[in-house]
Design brief:
Order of helices and strands: HHHHEHHHEHHHHH
Number of helices: 12
Low-confidence stretches: 1-18
Largest sheet: 2 strands, parallel
Radius of gyration: 24 Å
Structural class: mainly alpha
Helix content: over 70%
Distance between the termini: 34 Å
Strand order of the largest sheet: 1-2
Number of strands: 2
Length: 281
């Protein structure tokens, strides 16, 4: 009788991470990293082949008046009688000053597009690597983490691309210290701005996930987040004022989603803290 009970328990319990040697863990990690890199390279090659779509339809589109966000903002500007909200005066002249600049930019953007497209798969590979070290209840509660992280990252990318990037390009592209100075934007400068703004917002949208794990280990508390809510609002309003035209409507358009993300983080922290208290009781 003890034998079947013992075997059943072993089948139900997770495999302890300590049973695998350091080199075994390293070999497993190498496999996950290899598959992740392969996915990025394959999708990057697909992006490299579709050069016109990646550059003309995606990368360079936010600077054009016909871009969907710019057209919608112009309609909103006419409705709200706020002319500064209309982004139809952006005339960026993008130039290439390096002999191999366009080719290296093509390679760089292709790999970046591959990274964005493969992000859900990369997160899944990371979760597969840490999964054996989790207990059964931890596995059960973390199954949705891959989807949540992927969804938040993609939402951040879309929010940045369709709103933050056009506003940023309009602000910096039309800013002048003197009317006698014309802006001729280097291709590398334009690309680095679009990529950094887009990717950074994708990471920022992972804030609820970071808060979840930091609350789980007791580094932060929901009370701390709630107590500093007003300071975060001031920070978000300041960031919105910097990257948007000088009107309150555009600042609100940027600030509301970011502040909503912070409130979602507070709710996440409260849920984690409540479950931890229930487990202790």
């Amino acid at each position: 009788m003890p034998e079947p009970v013992s075997s059943k328990k072993k089948a139900a319990d997770p495999e302890p991470a300590g049973e695998m040697s350091f080199w075994g863990h390293l070999d497993a990690l190498r496999g996950h990293l290899f598959r992740s890199a392969l996915a990025i390279i394959v999708l990057g090659i697909a992006a490299f082949i579709n050069r016109e779509f990646i550059f003309d339809t995606l990368i360079l589109a936010p600077k054009e008046p016909e871009f969907i966000t710019n057209r919608l903002l112009c309609k909103l500007a006419a409705w709200a009688n706020v002319p500064s909200l209309c982004l139809d005066n952006l005339n960026l002249q993008i130039i290439n000053i390096n002999l191999s600049g366009q080719f290296t930019t093509h390679m760089y953007i292709s790999m970046f597009a591959g990274l964005i497209a493969a992000a859900p798969y990369v997160v899944w590979e990371i979760w597969r690597f840490i999964k054996p070290a989790l207990y059964e209840n931890e596995r059960r509660h973390s199954r949705g983490a891959v989807w949540v992280m992927s969804l938040l990252f993609m939402l951040g990318i879309l929010f940045s691309y369709f709103l933050i990037v056009p506003l940023t390009l309009n602000f910096f592209g039309t800013y002048q210290v003197s009317d006698s100075i014309n802006n001729q934007i280097a291709l590398s400068s334009y690309i680095s701005t679009v990529v950094s703004v887009t990717f950074s917002l994708g990471v920022v949208f992972e804030l609820p996930v970071f808060v979840y794990f930091l609350t789980k280990v007791g580094i932060i508390t929901p009370e701390f987040l709630a107590r500093n809510r007003k300071y975060m609002l001031v920070i978000l309003l300041t960031i919105s004022a910097i990257i948007t035209p000088p009107d309150i409507i555009s600042q609100i358009l940027v600030c509301i989603p970011l502040y909503g993300l912070y409130e979602l983080s507070i709710l996440t922290a409260r849920r984690v803290a409540r479950k931890r208290r229930e487990a202790e009781e």
